[in-house]
Amino acid sequence: GEGLGNKFLSHIKEVDLILHVIRCFDDPDIDHIENSLDPIRDMRIVEDELILSDLVSAEEQLKKLKKEIDKDIGNKEKILILEKIIKNLTTEKTLKNLNFNKDEEKILKTFNLISTKPKIFICNLNEKEKLNDNKYINIIKSNLNDDRSIIISISAEIESQIAQLENEVEKKEFLDSLDWNSSGLDRIIKSSYSKLNLITYFTAGEKETRAWTIKKNSTAPDASAVIHTDFKKGFICAETTSYEDYIKYGGSKGAKENGKTRQEGKEYLIKDGDVVHFLFNV
Fold it and tell me: Which of 6, 7, 100, 213 is buried deepest, with most CB atoms within 10 A?
């Protein structure tokens, strides 16, 4: 984002999750903007920039709320939270040590601060290295000092090669030759879903099969609203088959014939991989 300034930072404010890619390989043929390789320094440069942006944003919001303190009954609480945030960002350069209750968490989200976004740290390695042998990864882990941090090792060069293979068999053979179970992209997607508490369910018809992303523990009516709000309004039931049974019995017809399709009501929590047919009436 160099050169984009506030435009770049405003884009980041709109995202749900930040993937922070860190270069962890030496190569004299590839220039480094700082003329040397130091992943911890590189991380801090970016993190400090994001914290500074949050600090400016929090101070501006605080100034505005103080002017409008009597306009809303909740403004006093917002001011107290913002003052806490500014103090921590100034002294500790982080918000992870601050503890908020559920109501305060809701208020915190309205400030739209980058520091509150979940992050995944991606270590970009040389294509000749094994994913767990890199000398910088443990340094990054100890520097983050947070058990909740997700760190993924990839080789962008190899990922580029995988992306150029159109045949799934070729992709599998290539991954097998590297002794990998899955590509870095697959691991990033799965980790992102986990970090954001998301799952996928499917709808399958004659014309197409679609995947829908929802929050974990969503009820059937809430899940149906992702397709169309009318589905939730007129919800009757959800005909549900697990992904495993759908594959095992060759589709919805075979699953029904083997008693593997269930009719679920409004309280049913959609599970990851469910294949669902919604019945509704508006």
Answer: 100
Burial of 204 (0-12, 13-18, 19+ CB in 10 A): middle
Convert the pLDDT of each residue in 168-192 to its tens digit: 899 999 999 888 889 999 999 999 9
Residue 153 tokens read as 């090792």
Task: Write down the pLDDT at residue 98.
Answer: 81
Q: Give me 74's structure tokens.
A: 């909740």
Q: Is 239 helix (H, G, I), strand (E, B) or coil?
A: strand
Task: Quote the CA–CA distance of 171 and 183 in Å, as a whole number.
Answer: 9
Closest CA relative to residue 9, chosen from 51, 61, 62: 51
Find out whether 85 and 60 touch, Cβ atoms under 8 Å. Answer: no
Which one-letter amino acid corresponds to residue 186? Answer: D
Taking the C-alpha atoms of residue 187 and residue 159, their distance in angstroms, rounded to an integer, is 12
